[in-house]
Amino acid sequence: MATQESSPRPRILTGDTPTGRLHVGHWVGSLENRVRLQADYDCFFLLANMHAFTTRAEQPKDIRRDTLEIAKDWLAAGIDPERSTLVLQTEIPAIAELTWFFSMIVPFNRVMRNPTLKTEIELKGLGEHYSFGFPLYAVGQCADILAFRPELIPVGEDQVAHIEMCREIARRFNWTYTPVKPESKDEDHLKEGGLFPIPDALVGRVGRLVGTDGKNKMSKSLGNVIYLTDSSKEIKKKLGALYTGRQSMTEPGDTGNALFTYVRAFIKDEQKVKDLEDRYSRGDNIGDGHVKADIATAIDELLGPMRERRAALEGEKGDARVLEILRAHVDKANAVAEKTLYLAKEAMGLDFGRRVLGMEPK
Fold first, then answer.
1. CATH of the domain at 197
2. Is the pLDDT of residue 122 over 80?
3. The CATH number of the domain where 273 resides is what?
4. Same domain, yes or no, for 202 and 264?
5. Is the dihedral of CA 289, 294, 295, 299 positive or negative?
6. Same domain, residue pair 114 and 253
7. Are residues 53 and 158 in the same domain?
């Protein structure tokens, strides 16, 4: 696997915090883009198992399990370990060091204004009872990204505001420690001697997929999800509970409702989508059940190959295979992140030496 310095391909970095299995909202929001971009980008995909401890420090066994589960979902979805690098966050010490340095150049009140952070505090009911590390993880997410100096970050819509904070930190570091001036354009930072590119967010086809409750964003904590591992029967059952408020097949329907968000997200045949929209909006003898059946078929066709690949990764042998991949990728990830850290320290006048890291096989 080539490093950025020897690869002509631009780089992307994105990832997930291990909180359980992935669902179709993750697919249309970000994962689909990740799989597609592997052909043209030097891809790094981060398993943020360190961040998982910000709210689950007493559950290390669950975090380990969920880390392996998400890695399996990635591989099943089409992340190719021969073309992309899977990054296990806890094995990349440069991320923690960069978090420390970045935390010195971003105001605390800016961190606490981060919409993503505020939303998580509300959704998880943390109130004022969260660890010191919880707000720090917002800066840590910036270090996750900038350690690999990517140009593009595939994310869901709810992460765009956080990416803006990452962009602010990259600018501020470049202004403070490199020749880049505050008036410089984002696209000029590297050619003017900046260390960090100002990365752009890439939102998926569906920035925010509503859950099967028809109201809230698809979320594991709300129980309104269709998992990538769900069976045909489970998919049909979950979609059957999707409420639209429409009373009869002859009543004109709103194609802006949750049901048709799914139609446009998962049915690939554009003409079929148009026909469904037309008939539904006119009340042309088409019921919600008919549309749900078409959606269920489309989602099942999408997930079928993923379920097959996922089945090959189950059990102890599957865990061993995932660990083998993660350990094989540690050296490349550390080589890139360590170079970034050294260059950052050099810019700060802290270039007193370099270290070489690796992972011993267990």
1. 3.40.50.620
2. no
3. 1.10.240.10
4. no
5. positive
6. no
7. yes
Q: In angstroms, rounded to a whole number, what is the distance separating the alpha carbons of residues 113 and 152?
A: 24
Please check whether residue 210 is in contact with residue 217, taking contact to mean a CB–CB distance below 8 angstroms: yes
Give the whole-angstrom CA distance, residue 213 versus residue 194: 47
56-69 pLDDT tens trace: 889 999 999 999 99
Tell me how far apart the alpha carbons of residues 222 and 241 are, in angstroms, rounded to a whole number. Answer: 14
pLDDT digits (tens, 9 = 90+) for 208-255: 899 999 989 998 888 999 999 999 999 999 999 998 888 788 889 999
Sign of the four-CA dihedral 16, 195, 136, 211:
negative
* Residue 87 falls inside a structural domain: yes
Is residue 72 a part of any domain in this protein? Answer: yes
pTM over 0.85: yes
324/301 same-domain check = no
Asked if residue 54 lies in contact with residue 137, where contact means CB atoms within 8 angstroms, the answer is yes
Residues 296 and 235: beta-carbon distance below 8 Å: yes
Q: Torsions phi, psi of 268, nearest 5?
A: -80, -30
Encode pLDDT of 268-326 as tens digits: 999 999 999 999 999 999 999 999 999 999 999 999 999 999 999 999 999 999 999 99
Angstrom distances, CA of residue 13 to CA of 3, 141, 155, 229, 328: 14, 11, 10, 25, 18
Q: Select the more confidently predicted residue: 162 or 171.
A: 171
Element (H, E) at 94: helix 93-103
Q: Is residue 223 part of a domain?
A: no
Question: What gap in Å lies between CA 34 and CA 37, rounded to an integer?
Answer: 5
Gap between the Cα atoms of 310 and 210, Å rounded: 25
Residue of 60, 33, 24, 8 whose CA lies nearest to 234: 24
32 and 158 share one domain = yes
Instruction: Give the structural domain span for 239.
Output: 229-311
Which residues are registered as beta bridge partners of 152?
12, 200
Question: Tokens 């003409």, residue?
Answer: 271
One domain for residues 290 and 327: no
